[in-house]
Specification:
This protein folds into three domains: 4-69, Uridine Diphospho-n-acetylenolpyruvylglucosamine Reductase, domain 2 (2-Layer Sandwich), CATH 3.30.43; 74-186, Uridine Diphospho-n-acetylenolpyruvylglucosamine Reductase, domain 3 (2-Layer Sandwich); 234-337, UDP-N-acetylenolpyruvoylglucosamine reductase, C-terminal domain (Uridine Diphospho-n-acetylenolpyruvylglucosamine Reductase, domain 1, Alpha-Beta Complex). Helix content is 24%, strand content 27%. The protein contains eight helices and 20 strands. The strands form six sheets. It has a five-stranded antiparallel sheet with strand order 6-7-12-10-11. The structure holds uridine-diphosphate-2(N-acetylglucosaminyl) butyric acid. Uridine-diphosphate-2(N-acetylglucosaminyl) butyric acid is lined by residues 129-130, 226-227, 237-238, 241-242, 261, 273, 275-276, 279, 284, 297-299, 334.
Length: 338
């Protein structure tokens, strides 16, 4: 295994930050992941799994062995009348897996088209978009414990999925490398077009009967029109989670701010649109030095070029403070801060 000391991660994080990892290696097979876990030199020392680098803000150099998961392969492993099970290596790009499903007309992940990042990272934050979350098609994942090298299979229940949340952000944070995930997809899909923007886009595309492919295309069109492409402008998608508040808090705010955007959750709370709160505080499209909240979507923190991790983080703190000051609502950061 080739371990390189003092390695720049600038190409490997979508904020484009030039930070260095104390050591770095690439892993292309499960056996290599087990090998790395057993390496004597790194026993008991910090290890960090890097996927697409699209949900991390590095505020300093990484004092750890950074393991870049490049385990590939997408295969149909089982099927019955209704479903097909597709297994993908954790090092695949998430959108490659979506393309595979769309091309084969397997339904369930078309609303999750064009999300940046790797397959192995997808369950960590239970990726979601346009009314759908990963957990709805998730079957199981395989993971290697980074200290013992032991392989473990996690069912959906084991992962304890929540809104942008799982056990891998909590008890098992940085403890496992996710080497594969298996999805259970529909052969005769029903569609989720409940999100207003999808319906509008399908109309604009002149689609009468939606298909896996047309919904995927609609989502791609919406994302391209709103969200900055990380290959062009440094960002990590939504920087904050949409906060949930009790109904009485929502009613109180709605009286003062009639335009406030919120949606009822199944737990009887109201999920507020953080983008709206941030925009109302005047941050949308406002540039401060090298950073700012995006012009089309105020929830996305962007690096206009040359920003440091600290500059981005300080900006996020200012936004968080101002939303708290104006609305008494705390915005939790969705991106991992290191
Ligand atoms: N809004 C504003 N101003 C803004 C942005 C949004 O007023 O600058 C309001 C609008 O009323 C809009 C509503 O917020 O109708 C919702 O906006 P949008 O549809 O863009 O979705 P979001 O809630 O801001 C979430 C996810 C996105 C996901 C979209 C679509 C989170 C933290 N973010 O954003 O996920 O693509 O819904 O489902 O839940 C990501 O996690 O990185 C991500 C991009």
């Amino acid at each position: 295994m080739n371990i390189i000391e003092n390695y720049s991660l600038s190409r490997l994080n979508t904020f484009g930050l030039d930070i260095k990892a104390r050591a770095f290696c690439e892993v292309a097979a499960e056996s290599e992941m087990i090998g790395i876990a057993g390496t004597q030199k790194w026993k008991g020392k910090p290890k960090f799994i890097l996927g697409g680098g699209s949900n991390i803000l590095f505020t300093h150099d990484l004092n750890a062995l950074c393991i870049h998961n490049l385990i590939k392969g997408i295969n149909k492993i089982r099927e019955d009348e209704e479903y097909v099970w597709v297994k993908s290596g954790g090092g695949e790009a998430w959108h490659q897996l979506v393309i595979y499903c769309v091309e084969n007309n397997y339904g369930g992940v078309e609303n999750l088209s064009l999300i940046p990042g790797s397959v192995g990272a997808a369950p960590i934050q239970n990726i979601g978009a346009y009314g759908v979350e990963l957990k709805e098609t998730f079957s199981e994942l395989e993971a290697i414990h980074l200290e013992t090298g032991e392989k473990k299979i996690f069912s959906a229940a084991d992962c304890r999925f929540g809104y942008r949340d799982s056990i891998f952000k909590r008890e098992f944070k940085n403890q496992y490398a996710i080497t594969s995930i298996t999805l259970r997809l529909h052969k005769n899909p029903g569609f989720n077009t409940s999100y207003g923007a999808i319906e509008q886009e399908l109309k604009a595309m002149d689609v009468q009967t939606p298909t896996v492919a047309s919904i995927s295309q609609a989502v791609i069109n919406i994302r391209r029109s709103k969200l900055p492409d990380p290959a062009v402008i440094g960002n990590c998608g939504s920087f904050f989670k949409n906060p949930e508040v009790p109904e009485d808090k929502y009613s109180e705010l709605k009286k003062i701010y009639p335009d406030l955007v919120g949606y009822k959750t199944t737990q009887g709370k109201i999920k507020l649109a953080a983008g709206w709160l941030i925009e109302s505080c005047g941050w949308k499209g406002k540039k401060s030095g090298n950073v700012g909240m995006h012009t089309q979507q105020a929830l996305v923190l962007v690096n206009y070029g040359g920003a440091s991790g600290k500059e981005l983080f300080d900006h996020a703190l200012q936004v968080q403070q101002s939303v708290l000051g104006k609305f008494d609502v705390f915005l939790e950061m969705e991106v991992n801060i290191l």
